[in-house]
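Step 1: inspect the first sequence and its tokens.
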Amino acid sequence: MLKLIILGFYMPIMLTSLLLARHIFYTYVMESFDHKSIILDYLMEGLIFFIHEIIIIDFSFISLGLICFQYVLPIATFFLGRKRYANLNFILTPLIVFGFLKLKTGLVSTALIQIYLKAFFVWLTCWLIVMLKNIGFFGKFSLALSFINIFNTVITFFTLRNFYSIQDRIILFLCILFGTALIIIFIYAYLRDLKRRREMKKQITYDSLHDRLTNLLNYRAFSVFVSEQTSQDDLTILMIDIDNFKNLNDQYGHIVGNQILRFFANKLNSTFLKEYKYEVFIYRFGGEEFCVIIRDISVTDCYQTVLNLKKVLKEHPFRLKTHQKIDFSFSGGIARSTKTIHPRDALRYADTLLYQAKKSGKAKVNYGEEDQG
């Protein structure tokens, strides 16, 4: 009865714990090391794998009188980790098994060949399963683990057929199958939770860098971007402000005001992305103020795109659900950072040009490439 509990419950829990420990170690410890030594990586992997594999083999042998689940770590590493480490695991597993049995039972040296042939079959099976189409990576892992544990169990029981009755072999075989299923379920639950956490982290990062109303980048994202730039970066910066937006809010209400902001943000985004694709970054600073940063274009090219935006707004104005048209304009300022002008200075100059456009009558866009210092 104790053997059944060990095979069906205890060992699957222990193996899952070791797999999670390996994943956490490589994710949070190994990747934090600032080194580029492949040899050190392999040494660390070999040492950790040796310790974990000895734990599995020793516990299995002492508790059950046989070795089982010895290929769970290599298979999991092959499908869920790094294949280069998995290859090392497949090489080390026969050596560890042979060395352990040599010390415990005085196993003859020729048995090493048989153990390696079994390991080669397991490794080859993994590669063949990888090539299967229309099956996800976790499905391939589950298939490989189930098949190889069945294969390994059949071979083991055939070798030890004189020590176990047919009834005992069937019961142990079913327990190993049940244990394999538990390992798959535990790992699936962990991976699903890990995926959920990653998606949450990704969403939190996205929310921290984007404006909720317009889905444009926000001022925090702008600050991060500017802090990463140097005086060598050639950037054209456009500052835009919707004219008389407070009056629009007062006249039509904040809900309509928000709709206007979303409408303008969409037109701004589509116009500039259509022209510059991946070289443009569009921000909402708050309220009715927006900023556009474009790499490696002239101020006049940017100004031409602004004229295109004005044309788009004129041809496709904002309308309420009642089809009432609401016309509005915007003012802007365009400046450029160069080798002698840092992006922060260019931003200040663009803001100054925007202020001048507002002061001189609005619905204007000023630009300049003269000294901005």
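Step 2: inspect the second sequence and its tokens, then contrast the two.
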Amino acid sequence: MGATGLLMEYEDMFPFTGELKVVNAKNGYSKEDVKTILRLANESGLYVIPLVQTFGHLEFVLKHKEFRHLREVDKFPQAVCPTRNGTFSLVQELIAQTMELHPEAKYLHIGADEVFHIGRCNVCSRIGMKLGPGFLGVQAAKHQIFLAYVSQVLQHIRRTYPAVKPIMWDDMFRTMSAREIETGLGELTQYVEPMIWSYFSDWRHHLPQYGDLYKDVFPNIWGATAFKGSSGETAQIPNIKTQAMIHTSWISSLRENGHKMKNFRGIALTGWSRFDHFNPLCELFPVALPSLAVSMQILQDNEMNLEGVQEAAKNLNCQPDRPATLAFLEFDPNLDEFNNCSFPGTEVYRSVHAVMDLLVRRIEPHLKELESNFPVYQLHELYVQASRLDEHLRWITRHEKILANFMEEIKAAFKLVFDEYTLNEWIAANVVPVWTKLEAWKVVLTNTSLVEEWSSRPLNIPPFSVPIALPIGVTDTTTRLSHSSKVVPYKNNFPEQTTVPSGV
């Protein structure tokens, strides 16, 4: 598809050893897995750039009690404190173990983006007090602390791995002046290569200060777009219109201001799997492959055109006539037409599309209709129009069966690509909440259907205390039934084969 390299952020999936072994995910890669990835990348003509977080986004390490003392803010395991004893040795070890398994690496990405907690500990905050009162002093301190720590990391890499060029995210530089950066990094500005990440559809956001901030500071610059993992923390299918606009706007940005860059190395197409370590999974890689193919083609062609999209479809083994026009950006932003393609992970692509279509277009709108037609405060009094209850109950039963069948397809498809933990997490995040609501409504509507006589208005509603939850299995509802029938208790009847284990 035109890629030349692979940027790999392993995080807790890397097979760390020694004192770092505690940070490993239980379903992480083995050393042999990493070697296989590197071999396959080499066979595909891709050089691999490992990414090791060195400042922020270190939740996967700092969440553990063994490394809690290195947090900048004790409550938040987001960033290390650069002044703590042990911080730099931790970062050195993260880098050392990663580079040991990447002996051929020519670049090392050190992360350093979104360091939200900086200058907050007692030692770091005193630096701000020395630089001046108020906001300006605090900002100057943050800049100074950041640049001093990054300089330490860069100097270590240059000494230890002289043949390796470091890359880092640029966003922490954006509030600084060119003079601040040059003063803080010194001659290291000629060594490190910033990667400007921007996922906006407006090209003016892509090059900080229209390219002027970095033009006389760094000789080498990278860019970073996104083919997935940028449109929403819980998004499960990339919106191709949004992703296409990100890439076409980057092209516009480079046309307008690219000449200010001494040497623009290239663009990385990022595909985040989580917005941060504690977030649920967003778009899975197989589901985003068509987005990657189209995005790659846009960058190669320097524009969005039908021929390029059809070339992307050809690379995915799609039918030759798909898509026939660029109008698919409007009427098919989720690339449903690519269901007829055949690429690695197609089964996951199709099954996720089928489930999300059922959830988003059919079940969730119906749940909203139920909430509208049967307000919670009336349900607590079993005071609803009974004429459509059976209809709604049949609808719920029918769609639970459809969803259960789709879960069988999901299970079979995921087994081809993912482990059981990924399957269980995806179902827990995307399906179980909806299934639980369906089951809850089934119980409520069944209870309500037993009522044959109703009391006079007004309803018994406590002032300023409107119920906020469905009355599932509420014992006192039995006293308001005209029947002797018992309230149906709620239980999770999700199909056993897709039940999410406790603890997920």
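Step 3: confirm your contrast with the notes below.
Residues 349-498 form one domain. The mean pLDDT is 88.
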